[in-house]
């Protein structure tokens, strides 16, 4: 008559499959309580009510014929829903429960509406409807049960007395209570299993997030983001795009490597890469690779703001790196590193092949093409602290960045000499209104970027400069005082 709840069991089973094998300890197995078992239990409880009611003359004796139906129907329903076309029907469980409601309502009507047995059967039906389909199923089940009840009453009429003998009432209540308790127990077990599956999924999700963040350190953030959002497939594919390409290396690094211990050199190099990477990411650059003391970065893939903006961001990044390198050099000098480290940079703009190169089981996201070679060549020709750019890059940024013509060079892969330019600075930072000032001598270094200074920091810097000026003046006057007493 009634289908046992299995939605939670199905959901938990799916979650378990998604998680893979259950852990060896602490796992709660989902109890097997399918519709078939629940229906057998409910119809057996109803059969017991019929037998006791007939023996106590609460029901007419001909109702014993319903015992065969009560014992056969669960098996028949199981076969219909598993071995016939009904198995392909959507929401078959809810539909079969409505059939149970009609049968249950008809049984209540055929008993003549004897109160306690009628309420007991109705409780089993409504309990199952609420668990399986919620309020909607409960309303539909009530309507179908009412139809069955009306048909049963119309067939035999109401009983002479709506009261049932004590034993029949106790048997009806006990049968219904047993069904509800067993069903509630399995529902509780299913809820526990579902909570365990939810916890496992949450733990696995946290592990996956932690692992993805670890793996992300081996990829550029833009590439990692495009892969994890599904914008890019992880397969061997490339495309031609116009990119701004950047190369840099450290002038003097070879000499420094001969003076420093490998551990100290590694720490210095990692610090340099970390600082430069933060600058690159600030401007939206895709970090391709680190080779020795060299860095390769490009703009325009996997995201682009337009060729002009990409080129401007690339050159802006180079200028910022040059300024940042001066600050880092002063810090290294205070740590005892006397070799003057300078960064030199080259930038070109043009078409390159970008994408995944390599094998199916090991690929590298990078770029190739003659513009890559040009950027590398410009970097090798640059003087310490110099930024050399190609003509196309110059044409894209010349209105906002001041550059100096450096003539032409011959590069392999280019049929004609290539005009190159040296980046001076942002046009807005030239002249008396420039925001960045620098001054460096032995024993003194100053790098001032007024746009990045807060008002509180401004006052502290002014006091420090005033103290330094007073100290210099005092030391300047000291020889005169010594001469007077000499």
Please provide a written account of the structure.
The protein has 486 residues and is of the alpha+beta class. Residues 3-33 have low confidence and may be disordered. The chain has 2 domains: 7-210, no CATH class; 240-435, Alpha-Beta Plaits. The longest helix has 51 residues, at 166-216. Helix content is 57%, strand content 17%. It has helices at 7-19, 35-55, 66-83, 92-110, 115-156, 166-216, 221-228, 253-259, 262-282, 307-334, 370-381, 391-397, 455-485; strands at 238-251, 286-291, 294-299, 342-359, 362-368, 387-390, 401-409, 418-426, 436-441, 444-449. Strands 1, 2, 3, 4, 5, 6, 7 and 8 form an 8-stranded mixed beta sheet that branches. It has a two-stranded antiparallel sheet with strand order 9-10. The protein contains 13 helices and 10 strands.
Keywords:
single chain, alpha+beta, Alpha-Beta Plaits, 2 domains, two-stranded antiparallel sheet, elongated
How many helix segments?
13
**Terminus-to-terminus distance:** 121 Å
**Biggest β-sheet description:** 8 strands, mixed
Query: Which overall shape is indicated by the principal axes computed on the Cα atoms?
Result: elongated
Assembly state (oligomeric): single chain
Summarize the structure.
The chain folds into 2 domains: 7-210, no CATH class; 240-435, Alpha-Beta Plaits (2-Layer Sandwich), CATH 3.30.70. Helices cover 57% and strands 17% of the residues. The chain has helices at residues 7-19, 35-55, 66-83, 92-110, 115-156, 166-216, 221-228, 253-259, 262-282, 307-334, 370-381, 391-397, 455-485, and strands at 238-251, 286-291, 294-299, 342-359, 362-368, 387-390, 401-409, 418-426, 436-441, 444-449.
